[in-house]
Amino acid sequence: MIKRTVFFLVAIFGIVIAIYGVKLFFLTPFSINHLLSRHIIIEALESPEYLTSLGVLEQYGMRSHNGKFSNDSLEKDQKDLKKTKRLYKMINSYDNDNLNKRDLSTKKIALFQLENEIKERIKYPYHSYPLRQMNGAHTQIIEFMTDIHPIKDAKDGEYYISRLNKISVKFNQILEKMEIRKELKIFPPTFMVKRVIEQINNVLEIPTEEHPLVIILETKLRNLNLEEGIVVDFKERAMVVMENSVFPSYRRLLDHMNTILPLANQYHGVWSLPDGDNFYALRLRRLTTSNFTPEEVHKIGLSEVDRITKEIIEILESQGYSKLESVGKTLIELNMDKRFLYEDNKKSREDIIQTYFDIIKEANKNMGEYFSRLPKAPVIVKPVPSYSEKNAAGGYYRSPTLDGSRPGIFYANLYDIKATPKFSMKTLAFHEAIPGHHFQIALSQENNQLNLFRKFGVNATAYTEGWALYAEKLAVEAGLSDDPYDRIGFLQSELFRAVRLVVDTGIHYKRWTREEAIEYMINITGKAQSSVIAEIERYISWPGQACSYKIGMLSILKLRKKAKDILKNNFDIKEFHNFILDNGELPLIILESNFEEWINRESLKFTSSLN
Q: What range defines the domain where residue 39 resides?
């Protein structure tokens, strides 16, 4: 076992050297990049799911990780906390005076992340819920197995069976921590428990031979043109594992959720948890990567709601609307207008996916005017899987693999056809694909100037989601949404994100109920009720995350305006986007700090050219 681990680690080092250059691992042991790169590699080795998602090792003949899941035990959590504390101490020991500008920035990023992570692990290890209606472990594991696990030959099929067998271990580890939450009297809200119970029942009600976990294996094996006997054998083995291991493990989750249902939290915000206000403040800092207080975020949200509403009114009035009772009511009417809706049938859902493809293709043609580099990796569109679409967001993105075997994927939710009015489709495609998440993430993966930590070790939601929301605005500025109703779609999306600042802080800081938040969001945004309910319930289960979008967008726009004001006619949008994207994912407070150095260099560049 030790020899295999050592061999694997050495192999990983060899692969990274091949990808990032020999210098990376022959730096002095005191190099901060060396330390963080080793940390990232070790973290990756401990997460088979992450290695599978990256898709790098397979091209070097190593794929045994595809038969495993990561260790989520209590013992592992305790070891990870000690390791994180040790890493923080080591990073903090580097003398700033001995670091170049890039390494100093790397140090600041690492310390910011580690400090917040340590605080949350120590003070609030059980305040988040692993079984929740959105991105819960019980649905994520199915999505991972059906969408991410590679099956390119019979050996991959063996690894698939191996992973199926290990789902029960994964769920037992989750249940162990759920029992601790029960002892601490930390429970999810009642609606969340009911949603999870419903989702688990949906998983259990599917006949074994028709279950996605069986069907995907059979389908992918058949696509390889294997002998019929081999495919049938794999399917039968998978069905046995489902019956003897997977379904029983789901039933254990179900039993636990039914047990805690009478004990579930009657409130919806994390303020109701032990030390909940401070927990929420920490979540906001960690997810917005800013120093805004909950009160400040709430006020920013109200201000932005007012501004965007006025812009929507101007467009509506230009289209002949008058005596508007409320923007929200008018948007509701637009969202229900047959002119903008697809018929509720299979063909319409296929048409929606094709329309998204066309929007992305058209957008990509125009991006050369705004970016120096375009991603090499393509992006495709898929519907959100049926087993999770009811409670999933309107759309989301999955990054491509490093080896190019899987493109970027924009998942569109087609559960409620009325939640996809035609005038909102461009904005969603711009956000999730081009020039949004796909541009930012794919370009980062393809950027050979970024070290391992800066490419894979930074988690700054406000940056990534802020960029995607900024990308919506950029696409409008690029003339991709000239139709006034498409512009309303963009403003409705921006309004949606501004409202998030209000309702997220409203729920978790100002003690709003789920119903109050739903009513406010429907009245202001005009979004379909099903969409609003799913969103509000998402904010309840994922406190602070929804605030990252608008805070990130406002930060990027503030920096762009400042650059335009200083550089005037010398402002180059491509250079600005290079600044934003070339350094990879960054906490906003560090992005804004780096901006001062960048704008000074840009100013000197043009001053020097005049002398």
A: 1-69
